[in-house]
TrEMBL record:
This is Succinylglutamate desuccinylase/Aspartoacylase catalytic domain-containing protein. InterPro entries: AstE_AspA_cat (IPR055438), DoeB (IPR014336), N-alpha-Ac-DABA-like (IPR043795), N-alpha-Ac-DABA_deacetylase (IPR053138). It comes from Alloalcanivorax balearicus MACL04. Pfam families: AstE_AspA_cat. Keywords: Hydrolase, Metal-binding, Zinc. Gene3D superfamilies: Zn peptidases.
Amino acid sequence: MSYLPDSPISATVDYHRDGVQHGFLKLPHSHDDSAWGSLMIPIAVVRNGAGPTVLLTGGNHGDEYEGITSLLKLANRLRAEDITGRVIIVPMMNHPAALNGTRTSPIDKGNLNRAFPGDPCGTLTERIADYFTRYLVPLSDVVLDIHSGGRTLDLLPFAATHRLPDQDLARRCLEGALAFGAPNTLLMSELEGGALFDTVVENQGKVFISTELRGGGTSTPESVALAERGVENVLRYAGVLAGEPHPPVPASRMLEIPDNDHYLQSEHAGLLEFGVGLGDEIRAGDLIARIYGMERTGAAPVEYRAPVSGILIGRRHPARVAMGDTFAVLAVVLKNFD
Ligand SMILES: [Zn+2]
């Protein structure tokens, strides 16, 4: 194994101290307005003796608000006497992106969830990724990373996991995703799995649960409530909070994105008109959307039809679409997860 230097990040919290601590991950950032300055990434640690550790993360992408909001709220209310073990809360992993209201960092254009496992000598975003990979994930038994669609996607609410070669880990990750209690639980084939936080956590043999809880660059009372209930359910699943997870009513529907054919990318630029809505059941050949060119009148729109049958679980949120944009995501309904 090659040698990696220590992370440039220092924590103002002590991960091994009992009680509630609110502090920062300090990452040196030398720039024109602050020669010896630092990024100050908020972190809260709540610990009550020996027990499991759950790492709760939001703001991996800066424009996904259910995780940020629910974790800021949790950090305000969770008391040490409520728990057994430890909860580490980072509501805004890519803090510069969250402050800027964008998916990626305005400082280095870094997309944190495409920067894993990270690099202690790399860009600021790569340095953040490296700290999670080598310092926070090893402390953790269960990691919940709360995503939403951000400004450009709207996604049916789901908790997600992956098919993994380690069957025991796959089973535990699925239990965790089901415990979250979203209306849908999804087995997901990822477009860029190798650079995700997910892969780093799974490769360390830890339970990883991610979510998508709507999007569009905003949140709703329902989507935040879903995140808050899911966070508490995961804490119960891990044994940090007492009691069993509260299952959703009706029971979570099981879905799968089996391959990349279920992500539809536009080969045209223009204006999207959807023929179907989020959550609709679609058969192969059904019209999903028309794309209108915006250069002239009198030109027929391009029709996009479903290449496979499934449920529309994701759609592009803005009506303007460019070549290469994913504008629709389909998933199939599973009877069970065999
Ligand atoms: Zn995200």
